[in-house]
UniProtKB/TrEMBL annotation, chains A, B:
InterPro entries: ArsR-like_HTH, HTH_ArsR_DNA-bd_dom, HTH_MetalResp_TranReg, WH-like_DNA-bd_sf, WH_DNA-bd_sf. The keyword DNA-binding applies. Keywords: DNA-binding, Transcription, Transcription regulation. The keyword DNA-binding applies. Residues 1-104 form the HTH arsR-type domain. The lineage of its organism: Bacteria, Bacillati, Bacillota, Bacilli, Bacillales. Pfam families: HTH_5. Transmembrane segments: none annotated. SMART domains: HTH_ARSR. GO terms for molecular function: DNA binding; DNA-binding transcription factor activity. This is Transcriptional regulator. SUPFAM superfamilies: Winged helix' DNA-binding domain.
Amino acid sequence: MNQIDIFKALSNETRLEILKWLKEPEKHFDKPSAHLSKNMNEKGGVCVGDIVEKAGLSQSTISQYLTMLQKAGLLESERHGQWTYYRRNETIIKELWNSLKEEL
Amino acid sequence: MNQIDIFKALSNETRLEILKWLKEPEKHFDKPSAHLSKNMNEKGGVCVGDIVEKAGLSQSTISQYLTMLQKAGLLESERHGQWTYYRRNETIIKELWNSLKEEL
DNA sequence: TATGTTAATCGGGTTTTTTCGATATGTCAA
DNA sequence: TTGACATATCGAAAAAACCCGATTAACATA
């Protein structure tokens, strides 16, 4: 858990938004994808395309942003067929919160 | 309190360090400046020169970093004679914690 | 008032970030 | 196996961040 990498990831409007959207996916991504398994739905993953549409940036940019958020540890991903679903890594986010409370 | 500006300010090793140093100034800045009023000492302000020395970067860079941290709201400054003392703005930092706990 | 000291600002070379379009990879379905 | 679709990766132009030395501004004091 590198704090600098986390802050870098969060210091971009779009990436910060993505993290917040994924806190309540059902609220921000109306259409429940048909290809989404019930299990996946419970875990709250959202596929890249839906995030691209919502963010209004290019597919390549969003894909890179998601990778960056994942490398920072804030997101985790799971591939199902041709779709990759991203969801928050709540464990790391809680850890971040604790370390900030202590150190910051 | 702009979260993006705060994250940008924190996404640099030196600036993050400065903020942490200022959490316990007496621990990280040994020499209590003679020119430091008792009142100032209680509030824990540290002058720019001491931070420059500790950080090992140029005076201009540190001055700019401090300004940036201040603009983000994380630090506050007070000028006494030819010295400017910087200290943490604990109110804002607490606000930041709360907003992160809620929104992030 | 002239000098020295502290801190802020300016201008700029270098590196990193941002964001894109094009292309590659992986997967499903006919 | 071919075509269509989702996502990842590549290469690059533009913008921003990094960090410096030089200069300016503000202040103290002799």
